[in-house]
Model the fold of this input.
Amino acid sequence: MEIYKLQEEIALFAAERDWEKFHTVKNLVLALVGEAGELASVVQWLENVDKNFLESNEKIREELADELADVFIYLLRIADVAGIDITKAAQDKMQKNTNRYTIEKSFGNAEKQ
Amino acid sequence: MEIYKLQEEIALFAAERDWEKFHTVKNLVLALVGEAGELASVVQWLENVDKNFLESNEKIREELADELADVFIYLLRIADVAGIDITKAAQDKMQKNTNRYTIEKSFGNAEKQ
Amino acid sequence: MEIYKLQEEIALFAAERDWEKFHTVKNLVLALVGEAGELASVVQWLENVDKNFLESNEKIREELADELADVFIYLLRIADVAGIDITKAAQDKMQKNTNRYTIEKSFGNAEKQ
Amino acid sequence: MEIYKLQEEIALFAAERDWEKFHTVKNLVLALVGEAGELASVVQWLENVDKNFLESNEKIREELADELADVFIYLLRIADVAGIDITKAAQDKMQKNTNRYTIEKSFGNAEKQ
Done:
């Protein structure tokens, strides 16, 4: 599915409920932060959250998927409201990261450059 | 651009730098939270962050795009590492939201249901 | 009440429940982030959250107090587990801020220095 | 040092810089979230952040103290602006937690009750 289709669906969802008045960028950032916090609380006490663990813990896998989805939905909504092309922004950022974290400097260490 | 292409690019970026060892789900959630925090700090003291404001404040617009991109990149990476289809998760969540926040109950108010 | 008394109470609470094994610094940071997210979700759609508003909205006032308390409890717990004197750290930081944000440079504007 | 003294110092710092206009509860929550994000980014790629590690890594110990201080300062400022007694709120919350997470139910497991 294309990103913009999902954004249209989210915009329609908000419009149908007269929620556009709530959806300022600042309010939506607070909402995204709330969902990022729920994502953190899913994993906070777990030791090892990898594919193996998740395959045998369907309940946690679903909670994780649910919270990732919530962060994604608010992220797409913020980008839409702010008039920012999120896919292009991500591609631009990957290009910057490639220049900033060269393989020579960054191989095996993730220190800020 | 398709989501999975961006995820492949991010995965390659990590592999080339031997960063896969850092990219556990818990570490990546901490990283996403760090970027969500930077997103919050872009807008924290601003009064009105709408399209008009952003069109005449290119510097802030770029900072916002940059931080949205960072959250997006970590979100896609977590989904990839966890084996979760983020687009499907978002569609499932929108369906749940449609059932939970019916237009009758939620028109004009955003209270949790 | 003294800070260290509250820290002792929190430490005892964890010890009595055999929760010390969960309370690594990284896990506790994820937990603090979860509570900061709940704090954000209390205010996300509200227009004006000042003393007047809170005095006439006891339910929201209690939710806010509750989430501030949760962030505080995890903050004190992290400092304790990490062996950091949080009061001294705050005083040191206020001193740094005083040097960094001089009244001349920062009067009326909150830009990063 | 008493909590309220630190709050007075922070209030004076803001007043002297004419920053009270920025310090609405919502703006301060965004600021706290920004600092919680910086706290997360200090520990995100580290394996083991315990007292031993911190005693032999002074630079990380200082970064951690610095970010804990920033979260603390904004927490105290929010409580002050909102007219909430943060120490009393924390004591009330510990009492609630004691009732909710009884030793019988919660010994050795940190599941939400």
Summary: Chain A touches chain C through 15 residues (CB under 8 Å). The two ends of chain A are 35 Å apart (CA to CA). The mean pLDDT of chain A is 96. The CA atoms of residues 49 and 62 of chain A lie 13 Å apart.
